[in-house]
Amino acid sequence: MIALLLVAGLLAPDAPLAGTALWRFPDPYATQIRDAVVQARGTGLPGHLVTDDEISAFLARAKPAGADLGCSDDRTVCADPLRAALSAVGLTSRIDATAERTDAGWKITLNQTSLGDGPVAPFTGEGDTVAAAVEQALAGLQGQGSVRVAVVPEGARLLLDGQPWGTGSGTYPARPGKHMLRAEFDGRRPVEIPITVARGQTTATSVQLPVAYGKLVFVTDPPTATILLDGGSYTSGELRELRPGTYTLEIGAPGYQPAKHTITIKPAIQLDLNLKLTPEHTDWWALLQSPHPDTLKHVWLVRGDLRFDWLGSAKLNRTRGPVALNEQTDSLALAGVGFTLTWRSRLLIVDALALTFQGGAGPAAADFDDGEGKIRDEFRMTVRPAWFGVRYPMWRLEPYAVGGPLFAFDSFDAEGPAGDTESFDATGFALGLQLGTRFFFNADWFAHVAFDSTFWFGERPTAGFLLGGGFAFDYALPEWL
Question: How far apart are CA 141 and CA 77, in angstroms?
């Protein structure tokens, strides 16, 4: 003991180097470990004697100059020196670094012997390479621990105490103490677990994230409907968490047609449904009471019709040349086209102008002064200015009624009893009434069907059927109108 103290006194430096630690590598893998330590520490671990140059520089400051460390240096194999020798030469600790192979790669152990009576402090690290294991062990030596995490699925995001920590399985440094580890992954339910990290130690843990549930909530009309979800009972408005996948919904209620739907639940997504059952007997009148916006949108209408008319008998009293035509005694069928421009408000309707062009091939029986004859070909044009009426829009339908004056311009050929043929022209006046309805496919286009008739004293009455369609639009009239 006295000899050791004398040697220590001879080797004592001028002023002890605070925090000086001597590294020893008594291991077959000494070179690999030393290189890994030098690489991993970077500019850290000040005062640690790891390389030969660092040891030589330390010895150059010791007294006597050039003294060696004896068995404190790993270049000499001997028994572990007493702690007193560390103090004598100005060292605060000695670190023995060893390595061993494991199934996962390498395990590095750093045994630190410090001044005082405390036990040897081990710091360990594991990794698939010597460098990785050394880096983990150094983290413990510098006041940290580490956590080896195995997470499923691989690639999950890791947070330690709410802060981003890493991604996927691996070994991560952490300060000693209690922490909360959280793992997250899209489509999986997040998991939180408490962990305790010891200084210089590696804590192992595993986390498996279950598949995230989706959510389903839906409301039915009527709310008293019976709901089955894959055969199980479900309550309208209930929020339920379900595993991702496909489900069958069956809804039924007295007085309504049953419904069946297939739905898909996706992870971490809420599906909101509003299901309305169709009554077994649709209340069409209630539907018709509410006009569709398409029937109300535009003010002006223009339409074209195919017309089929019946022209009744009446006195004509026409004379031309040797032919004197007194009366049409039989009806005549006419066919043609018509065009109408209409203005409308919410309930009022005005056919501003309507024109028709019709023809009939006859023959129709007629009475002449000298006997029975025939009316053959006839052409008729009518003008209807300003027919007024009302409309009652409901759903996409627009029933209406209009009436007003009509001016007719006729041209026809008449054949007398003797076979003499003459052409006659006639102009007439009548009052007319038209009843019809329109169906709006959309706000712009509609179909049209109607019946009309005209009558005036001494004029031939008519009855007609119209079928056509048209276009709705808006147009602002000039201010002077």
Answer: 25
Regarding whether 271 and 189 lie in a shared domain, the answer is: no
Exposed/middle/buried for residue 121 (C-beta within 10 Å: 0-12, 13-18, 19+): middle
CB 88 within 8 A of CB 69: no
Q: Within 150-209, where are the H helices? A: none
**H or E stretch at 22:** strand 21-24
- Nearest CA among 351, 365, 276 for reference residue 316: 365
Number of alpha carbons in the 13 Å side-chain half-sphere of residue 223: 2
Token pair belonging to 390 = 């009302």
Distance CA 303, CA 399 (A): 15
pLDDT of residue 5: 33
What CA–CA distance (Å, rounded) separates 292 from 405? 32
Per residue in 272-321, pLDDT tens? 888 888 877 656 666 666 788 888 888 999 999 999 998 888 888 887 77
- Pairing of β 145-152 and β 202-208: parallel
Q: Report the C-alpha gap between 316 and 328 in whole angstroms.
A: 7
- 367-410 pLDDT, tens digit per residue, is 888 788 888 888 999 999 999 999 989 888 999 999 999 999 98
| Assigned domain for 47 exists | yes
Last-in-domain residue among 276, 311, 330: 276
Category of 403 on φ-ψ map: left (φ > 0), alpha (ψ -120 to 50) or beta: beta
Residue 62 tokens, joined: 């010791």
As a whole number of angstroms, the longest Cα–Cα distance in the chain is 172
Task: Please report whether residue 112 resides in a domain.
Answer: yes
